[in-house]
């Protein structure tokens, strides 16, 4: 922990500003002020960073490396200040200089190197590892362009590149001396020397992987871990020079571009797998660079390669980094000269894998030809793994060819990454109880039967530091006043707040805090969208990726029905509501984009209809991202978690909302089930098909969207409104949404759940009318949210999977 008082801070800051910008503070722009603050904080962090590294290198503690294609970090300044314990000192010092800290914090560009839940989870895990003093580091790609920026223009999503590095990045440090070479293509030369077969990749294309390190600050414990992101560069400029001199200027530039393409952009898909060669290149690129640097570092500090697995744990976030398995094998076999058996044992003991999705279309597989040409040596290793593994299967499942070919790593012309991840690791986990059960019973049942002890559950979590302490400081203060501050280090202590749930004084205070947050959000909505919303209405929020299974359509159809009811009966007695949506659609996902158009068209119509405007309003906020979520969540009354049961692996925003005192309306899907178990049935509003009913439909069929619609007048009316010009002159505008519901028989049972959803929404109104009762529910949600801190999740990973012994000591 650094100790710095206000006056020292002020001096340090002024000095930093002068050094950095060569001018006086008063003449600086706000962005320059932000830059100076960021770089001062990085200086403050530097010493602990080195100390942490030194301790880590000396200690024999296990090092955890979290490999992920995505780290959705968001902004860093506020969290760093909070975790260093100097946010208030800094706020005061800046105040004296007439600078508003929050204004500067808002100028930081989000580091948006992720699509959604999986990427944000990785960022929360880094925060928890550092805060729990676990030596754990992130390994990923430094995309030049993050997740695209979304603008809503004429009600439609328009994508623009996210040039997040344009104004520089004060947090990262380029480490050219730690660069690694990654080899693509070419052939494998096989030679025998002294009775050993040696494999050498020749005629390959070398790519330089250059790491950029970002400090991950632990909460008041002097621990600074590292997020290392790799950037692709040409190996040397010599190539350019020689071709320039041969007059091949354009060719040289094209080469440079093709190399840099590897870390150019994050793929903006979160569920549909596409076999793009560049994505496979990205995967091998960062995995190979990461592993080479880990092994190099391990040996440099005296590690014996035979004991690698006792000191290193590598976790792969979904199948995207699965090439870590054959790459580690390659290093152990070809560079360290170990036997196949030893290499395989070490690799299996080192690697563990998390599955994040059960959508079959998201399972990654690569065409053999593509794989083999790009990664010839890695392919040989995967082939050998597959051969040995299938041999075992043959002995076990005599004659059961179908089963064996289903379980093989290589089959039907593809390399299957999930199968490789399961076979090559020692642990496979799902991210919520239901999800893990589905993996075991259905999706991966053959593997579960083969390796029962590999399978385990680790219910997701969220950083309560970012999602409560930082983003809702008033609520944090109320908790501290009532139950003390022990919950900050021990989030389960939030349970002590339960008894205050029945205290009308506390209920009132909770309501005041919520209202204050809602006022702030209302202001933001007005500034960004020009829509006036009533802070006394229920803020009903659905913010997440736009996807058919998440069922934004269900929410929208219900609003359309409510609107029809209000037109018929302007005196309908409902509690006023503001419906808030935000979320991005994958650029090629037509249905999701059409859903955005629908929501915006409904918003446009309703918001301009004076007859209903004191009752309902709809807002679709542009460019959903971490920093926007931090503003919306503390201002939410009702959290919409309405995915088709069995489809949402876990969900994590559900946890953020409950921790901030929102009531959840939910299906019994993902972690919603565990939330219900924590708060009790009376403090959450559940509706919809059960797991068994959904699986029944999938297995036995018998679902008829038309029948359901034709038997419900409300559904007839709202589905007609999709195509009768009511919301847009162009009757075909929402055709895609319509056809999905009816022509294609409603894969996600929106129509089936409609009635039960509407009943659930009526309950919301009923509960909200008694505001004390409502706040009691909110308080109980807050009190039971501690278990969903990612600190709990990470401790489970550390003890149950990684075998992290203890944590850094005495820093
Ligand atoms: C795969 C191949 C090609 C291109 C992109 C992808 C890709 C990229 C991202 C596939 C999946 C993702 C992300 C998935 C994801 O975010 N899943 C979510 O993970 C959360 C954390 O565990 C869960 O809470 C959510 O339920 C789950 O949907």
Automatic annotation (TrEMBL):
Entry-linked InterPro entries: Glycg_phsphrylas, Glyco_trans_35, Pyridoxal_P_attach_site
State its Enzyme Commission number(s).
Answer: 2.4.1.1
Q: Which residues carry this modification: N6-(pyridoxal phosphate)lysine?
A: 656
Q: Which Pfam families match?
A: Phosphorylase
Which cofactors, by name? pyridoxal 5'-phosphate
Catalysis: reaction(s):
[(1->4)-alpha-D-glucosyl](n) + phosphate = [(1->4)-alpha-D-glucosyl](n-1) + alpha-D-glucose 1-phosphate
Entry GO MF terms = glycogen phosphorylase activity; pyridoxal phosphate binding
Protein name listed in UniProt: Alpha-1,4 glucan phosphorylase
Keywords from UniProt, A to Z, are: Carbohydrate metabolism, Glycosyltransferase, Pyridoxal phosphate, Transferase
Q: Which GO terms describe its cellular component?
A: cytoplasm
NCBIfam families assigned to the protein according to its UniProt record, in alphabetical order: P_ylase
Q: Organism's domain of life? A: Bacteria
Family annotation (PROSITE patterns): PHOSPHORYLASE
Task: Write the gene name.
Answer: glgP
Under the heading Gene3D superfamilies, the entry gives:
Glycogen Phosphorylase B
The UniProt family comment states: Belongs to the glycogen phosphorylase family.
| Protein function | Allosteric enzyme that catalyzes the rate-limiting step in glycogen catabolism, the phosphorolytic cleavage of glycogen to produce glucose-1-phosphate, and plays a central role in maintaining cellular and organismal glucose homeostasis.
**Which Gene Ontology biological process is one annotated for this entry?**
glycogen catabolic process
